[in-house]
Amino acid sequence: MRSDWEIVVGLEIHAQLSTAAKIFSGASTAFGAEPNVQASAVDCALPGVLPVLNRGAVERAIRLGLALGAHIAPTSVFARKNYFYPDLPKGYQISQFELPVVQAGTITIRVGEGESAYEKSIRLTRAHLEEDAGKSLHEDFNGMSGIDLNRAGTPLLEIVSEPDMRSAAEAVAYARALHSLVRWIDICDGNMQEGSFRCDANVSVRKKGATELGTRREIKNLNSFRFLQQAIDFEANWQIETLEDGGRIVQATVLFDPDKGETRMMRSKEDAHDYRYFPDPDLLPLTIEPEWIERVAAAMPELPAAMQARFVRDLGLPAYDAATLTANKETADYFQSTVEAAGTPCAKLCANWVMGEFAARLRKANLEIDAAPVTPAQLGGLVARIADNTISNAIARKVFEALWNGEGASADEIITRHGLKQLTDGGAIEAMIDEVLAANRNSVDEFRAGKEKAFNALVGQVMKASRGKANPAQVNDILRRKLGAQ
Amino acid sequence: MPFSNEQVERLASLARLGLPGEAIDTLRAQLDSIFALITQMQAVDTTGIAPMSHPQELSARLREDVVSETDCRAAFQAIAPQTEAGLYLVPKVIE
Amino acid sequence: MSNTPLFDASVSVLRRALDAKEISSAELTNVFLDRIAALEPRLNAFVTVEREEALADARAADARIARGEAGPLTGIALAHKDVFCTRGMLTSCGSKMLSNFVSPYDAHVVTRLKEAGAVCLGKANMDEFAMGSSTESSFYGPTKNPWATGRVPGGSSGGSAAAVAARLVPLATGTDTGGSIRQPASFCNVTGIKPTYGLVSRYGLVAYASSLDQAGAFGKSAEDCALLLGAMTGFDKRDSTSLERPVENYAAALAAPAADAARPLAGLSIGLPREFFGAGMTDGIRQAVDAALVQYRALGATMREVDLPNAKLAIPAYYVLAMAEASSNLSRFDGVRYGHRAAEYDDLFDMYRKSRSEGFGDEVKRRILVGTYVLSHGYYDAYYLQAQKLRRLIAEDFRRAFGECDLIVGPTSPVTAWALGAMRDDPVQMYLADIYTTPVNLAGLPGLSHPCGFDGDGLPVGLQLIGNYFSESVLLNAAHRFQQATDWHVRCPELAA
Fold first, then answer.
1. In this structure, are residues A16 and A196 in contact, taking their beta carbons and an 8 Å threshold?
2. Count helices and strands in chain B by DSSP H and E runs
3. Range A426-485: architecture per CATH
4. Into how many domains does chain C fold?
5. ipTM, interface predicted TM-score of the complex
6. Closest alpha carbon to A61 in A16, A24, A117
7. Which residues in chain A touch residue B86, judged by CB atoms under 8 angstroms apart?
């Protein structure tokens, strides 16, 4: 990216809410049913039918508002957004326009890895309730398209950010943070393949130091974090090149083609819709009493930011560990259960294992945390044996592998069965060391001549002789003492 | 301000109505007279008056999040112009 | 039984005859079906007459009566305005768009009346999608006024009003968005009531203007209307605007004897809006209305003048709001899931355009275009928002007026039934005739029209009673006492079969 340009990104994210029934009808929202069997009279917009708002959808909006520290509007209004499309049966979408249910709010994101990682606070403009459209199936039915209205009326929260992101990486970090949050507070299953969490990105560029925003183009329907990253990178580059070549950006809606890695124009602002918003006369204003918000707040899980602070304060974890472990609900839950099994003093060791060996093994096996063959209780049991010196880290990795492969019900069982208990008997270790020293005079001489490497070779020999069971710290100590004394 | 033919055609397009050429002039004159009536409203100063959307200014009553509908596809599609494999068919949708 | 013909008898007389087994519901139903067969060709009050289904309903009602389980309407025939969805029966809304729409479900009102055991004879003609004041915009041709078949019956519920006036059916449902029950009631010399907005569920009523539409009842008398309305009201959880209130027994309230039999309306304070008695109405109407007011005084009511200063703005405000809502409500008619689809088209856009152009008539198209315009970008504040603000001013006028009186009374319409075709090319002239009825819908108040005489041409004149919210029983009682003392409502057009 040319360094004198700045990228400005805002995201609009549609999160499908995890209600049992639709937002304005009693039809099921379950995914994957036969076409149109979950399209009720209201969803099909038969003449004369009327919408009635689902309490569960509102409650989920309140949860999000609370999690974002946002203003939850005491009164919000549903409006009709009028346009014709075959998957929009009423010819209008019921949405919120002037008075959305969730207003303002912020979320903190972590961008990057390691040394260069930084935190940033992103402002949210609003989140509003609306209904999803049906689906147009484009495979050929004698030159026609097929319309499935099962999805029509599924509740959505459209979550709109301020244009606070300055790179594709920040946009992805924001989308990930929100994705994690909606699952954390259990309002959306976050399944991006099934379209439960969809991103639109508003991208513009401007010269660094400029205060005015550039003209934006909106990239529609990005259904993976990878595409989000690629599409923003491509679009921003294209805009910069266009401007540097003396062209200008025209406000437009574009689509991202993942096969070509390109964005292409869908429609310009000139042929943008005139949505003719007006308050839906079939629905009265939504009133949310403070008591309702209090009840929802009381039932909320501990939020990631609070949990992070608690991990630092009560478990003594470094800030980085706390942030990593609270990146999503599943990891946080797994970690907490592991600590419960291992004991609080082992928290840091648990964190190392969950973020290290365990995470690596999941990645290698391409598994989600829920499908991990090692339970938090098993991992906690293993960590406890490391902490009380029963086994070394090296042996622990073998025990972990055995647990992963289902070779035992607990770390203790595997340790006992394979006799992996660490050798901590000083006398026995000393005897072993004496043998090794006697058999490796060359190494001893080299060490004495100043070669530190030779010391490691001797340690290796002792560990080998103990078949890995000798306590490495003890071996070190005794060996140093003996070499110093000799 | 009288309507132009272009305005009438744009409105008709927004509303997905086709108007035969000869109908536009008549319609334009009718719209002009309807708006002559409607614009009488502008004479009233409504500064500070809250708009009224519903006769009963109450709050939304909410339904519980419970599935109460069963599959009515066969009945609904019996009256549809064109269906196949449980889908409503329309001329090709181009995005 | 008196010697009044059955088709002209009140519902309470029919009730007694049915309960006494002097006649069966099947026989009674045939009386009306035969009368329809004889007179319908001259009136065109119905879109659909379902002879066999009606007789099946009647036989079921007879069984229920025999079991001693009859309610007030069990076995009594009625017609539904063709705007109510009726399962398995054509529900056309007077439009080519729905000329093939056999509804897969029943409207709440239809369900309630089925449960009451009423016998549905068929569906009454109406202005297309309830847009009109003459029933001339129906795809099924205009309904004729039984008092003068060269004239309109009013609208949009003209088929319902004409059918009751011609004694083709004792009761009929209707809907009233800007006067669509009260105005045809006045044109046809029947009684019609539009209750408080929210009292009758709109579920299954094909929407014209959702914040104004309200279902109501037609009958030969206030007493008959009370019976029908009582069976239609009641909370429905499927309509977000339906009100949770206990159901009132309007008919029982009417049966209670007045404290002062000679002056049964003693203590009732009637407000006469200056704005409803100025220029505008014809002399014939003024004379009939004045005479009715004399009668109300004789019944014990007191009169005072009240002001509704913003009522004159009701017409533009009403038409802006109604057309805006209509333009959106009618977007669902796109030829995809039901209704008319053009036979040939080039692409999706063309399919929409042709289907809608072919399916909708001129008045519907005009209203969709006006509604589209007033909601479009840049015009919303000037039209829609301004109309909503005027709506509040008008509702406030009524609120103040009801601080000074119990009922507001005036003419229902400034004109009597006009000749068929007279307003065909001048929609605005027709809109202006809704001057006295539209303010009531904007405020959401109940209104009733009852016969009060005839003008110089022998055409019926209606008197409008407007009540405060939920004062239906006050309206019905006033009209009932008036009808006990007068005979305008029992006059029946000469229609030799």
1. yes
2. 3, 2
3. Orthogonal Bundle (1.10)
4. 1
5. 0.97
6. A16
7. 34-37, 148
